[in-house]
Design a protein that fits this description.
The protein has 158 residues and is an all-alpha fold. The protein has a domain of 76 residues. The protein contains 4 helices and no strands. Helix 3 packs antiparallel against helix 4.
């Protein structure tokens, strides 16, 4: 009976030693020791979702500005057709120029939104270093026959 209890106590001692030597299991709140990578993912997704929402809003604004531009051009044609006064035509032309400026501004905002989305995808691990990426590996060694990425024109057998 003494041998069984000694073996049992020895086994319990080994298990407790293993449990208390691992820092994640020895801590009462071992969840806090886990990497917070998974915890931050929803915030990143939320940021990308907000970027897409902003892009949709900018597109809708561009569509509204284009519709207004079309209406103003139709009004200008009617003014010319009805031989309106020069002041009315000049005011309508000024409105059209303002519409064109708004359209250019909307296009610039959409372009910036797409750039921000591409940048966020690159920061959040979607592999944004391909054709449209702005990341370049300056330490890349392309001297071998397998990795001749930028050295196509050079004869590598010299």
């Amino acid at each position: 009976m003494k041998i069984k209890s000694t073996i049992t106590m020895f086994a319990v001692g080994l298990v407790s030693l293993a449990a208390f030597s691992a820092p994640a299991h020895a801590d009462r709140n071992h969840v806090s020791r886990i990497s917070r990578h998974d915890v931050r993912q929803p915030a990143r997704r939320q940021e990308v979702r907000n970027d897409w929402r902003e892009l949709r809003n900018d597109r809708a604004e561009l569509d509204r500005d284009r519709a207004e531009f079309g209406r103003d051009r139709a009004d200008l044609r009617n003014l010319y057709r009805n031989r309106a006064s020069r002041g009315d035509i000049d005011r309508k032309k000024a409105e059209i120029r303002q519409d064109v400026r708004e359209i250019y501004q909307d296009r610039r905002e959409i372009r910036d939104d797409y750039a921000e989305l591409r940048r966020d995808r690159g920061n959040f691990g979607s592999g944004n270093f391909g054709r449209f990426g702005d990341r370049q590996d300056w330490n890349r060694q392309d001297s071998g026959s397998w990795g001749r990425g930028w050295d196509y024109g050079r004869d590598w057998r010299q």
